[in-house]
Specification:
Four Helix Bundle (Hemerythrin (Met), subunit A)
């Protein structure tokens, strides 16, 4: 099946490929798309808030948030493709004989990419959650449930991406692995904290 960028696929096509007996797209792409869904849903919340008289003091802030959210969606879809490429590279290079010069030259970086890409997804989603926390006070209160769902999706994306980080950590040198594990743990804790704050604000 020829590769197509995730953003070029219909939702039905993406889900069909995700369900197929192929290594990519897989969990990493699903994590990125969950984050993109959260960003897009928060964008809807902002769009329903722009131009409202009672939210006029927050208009500039909401406009800026919309730009950030609109940028985050394609970035996360690109990360879905980067994750698939990283996994594909590790899968291919790992199958080469131990003495193959290409394996020795390229596999270490591919293994780093397999950790760095999902880490980037988690970091992006934590930043989104920080934005969602601010939006709880500046957006249309009638869309609070949508903002809470956006937060849940972003937190789920962080947690899902962390699974991919964890499974690939053993391939890194010990010092790099420990540093990446600490970074991932910090992202998970912050994601959970922020998601709880947004959910609480949206039900107050």
């Amino acid at each position: 099946m020829p590769h197509q960028p995730t953003h070029a696929l219909t939702l039905a096509d993406f889900l069909s490929r995700l369900a197929a007996r192929t290594p990519t797209p897989g969990g990493g792409a699903a994590a990125s798309v969950a984050g993109a869904l959260g960003a897009a849903l928060a964008g809807m919340v902002v769009n329903y808030s722009l131009g409202k008289k009672n939210l006029a003091p927050h208009e500039a802030e909401n406009q800026q948030a919309l730009i950030i959210l609109s940028t985050a969606v394609p970035m996360l879809l690109d990360l879905a493709d980067e994750d698939a490429a990283a996994y594909g590279a590790v899968n291919e290079l790992s199958r080469l004989p131990e003495g193959d010069p290409r394996r020795a030259a390229e596999l270490p970086q591919a293994q780093r990419d397999s950790v760095q890409v999902p880490m980037a997804v988690g970091a992006m989603c934590v930043n989104l959650l920080r934005r969602f926390e601010a939006l709880a006070a500046t957006t249309n209160r009638h869309l609070r449930s949508d903002l809470a769902i956006a937060a849940i999706l972003a937190d789920a994306a962080t947690r899902a991406a962390a699974c991919n980080v964890a499974v690939n950590l053993p391939s890194l040198p010990p010092a790099e692995s420990e540093k990446a594990r600490a970074r991932c743990d910090a992202l998970l804790a912050e994601s959970a904290r922020l998601c709880a704050l947004v959910e609480r604000a949206c039900t107050a």
